[in-house]
Each structure stands twice: as structure tokens, then as C-alpha cells.
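Section 5.1 Outputs to date
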Amino acid sequence: MIQTSFSFRLGICALFMFFSAASLAQGLLEQGLGVPSLTVEERLLLELPADSELRILEVSEDRFPVLIQQANQSTPEGALLLLADPEAGPSWLEQTHSLRTYMAEFGWFTLALDLPARQHLIVDTDAESRYANQITERIRAAKTEIDRESIETLIVIALGRSAGWATEYLRQQPEVAHLIMIDPQPHHPNQWSALTEAMSTLTEKAVIDIYPARVQRLPDIRIRANQAKRSDLLRYHSQPMKGEYAGWKIEMPWLNRQVRGAIKTFITQVDTRIEAARSVQEPPREQLPPGRR
């Protein structure tokens, strides 16, 4: 059963907590004592803008944070579920920050989810099954939080190795969300077939594949592009990153603009045209008695 344990809403209280915790942390660091008194939530608050919201979700015995940035308009353009790379570790905040805050400024409700790293060898099938279930349950819980907002359009943005998990989750319900993969990697090391096979089922929505423009990555993008053609993914689009990519940074303006442009061109405008076409129906024929035509 999915429950929301509690929610930090950052306003005046959060600012007070921020400065108080920051002062405490700075004092302890100056004394060489570290910051052992801070909880995980307090440590996260030190890293967040004042208008961000930290929620702690709980699924069974798994307790984990999500970061929410409200849209800057009363009716959001849609919702973005950002999946951090499971291997990002504490850097998941840095990895998701730029897109999360930038897209909110352009009217999107955003939720960033930390995914756990694998703590075992893949040959341990029982542990791998538990790990896969943990990933799935976290994504499902995050989507439930988004569902509370009653937002119609949902886009999953998968970063790095989360792409494999995103495609695996969406293959069970391909009509739920569009997918953007940024520097996509398989969730099993070097097992591209798992990612491409799951991707091939996503025929209902757009799939946007943004990859680093590096020579060593070209074979990977060709594999995905060819699989998309074989699977008739009519809304699959691939494009190289338009900036110099050397890992995730706290601010990535060129990537923000590229993602926003891809969403507008390949998702929202296309969805609008599809809905318009559906609304144009053949005029109803006059109902006449039998024999009168």
C-alpha cells in the first residue's frame, strides 16, 4: 500500500530551517566535527531552493524522497516525472535540478525521483528481483503523487541508466506517458536488448531519444533507431545533444532549451493536432424510416 508519510512545504518555516541548519552545519564543519546531527531530510533541505517541496514517500519498508516544483501558472502545461540515474548517488539532486526548476518556470509541474543503486551482483536472481520491484514501486508511488494533481499530460524524463527502468515500467501501460531519454543506458550493464525490446512496445506515445554527440555512442543510437523503425514507433525521434556534455551540472541551460523545444515540437503540438483530428467527426446521417433514402 502506498502512503505519503509527510510533506515539507518550503516557505518561511523552510527558510528558517535552511538558515538554522546551514549555520549549524557550517559551525560543525569549521570545528572539524562534520554534521552528524542532521537527518536525511534536513540535509536535503540545505540543497533545495526555497520554493521547492520535499516529500517523503513510503512503500512497504522503503522510505525515499521526491522533489516537487510547482508550475508558475494556475493550470500546468503538464507534469514531468524526472527519474535520476540509479548510480548518481547523492548527485541525483544536481542531476535533476536544472530541468526541474527550468521547466516549472515554463508552466510544468515537475517531480524528481531518486532511484536506488544496485547493491548486489546481477547473478543473484532473488536480490535482482527485489531490486527491480523496489524500482517499480518507487516509480509507481511517484506517479500516484502526480495523479493527485489531476494533470492530463504526463512525460517521463529518464536520465542515464533510469532509461532502462522507465521503458520497462511503461511497457506495462504504454498509453500512460510520453518518454524522453537523455543519455540513455540499459538498467543491466551492456544489455541493450532489454532497453530496446521494452522501448519497442511504446507505440502509443512519443519517444524522444537525446544522446551525447560522441563517436563511441553512435552504434548505440543506431541500434535504438533501427529498433524503433522495426517496431513502427511512429513518434520516435532521436537527436544529439546540442551542447558540450561532460556530465551533469547544477545548471545546463542548453539542455533545458533542447528538452523544452523537443516537448513543444514532438509532444504538445502533435497531441493538439491529434485531438483536433479526433474532434472532426462525420456529420450524423439523418435517421429515416426504412425504405426512405
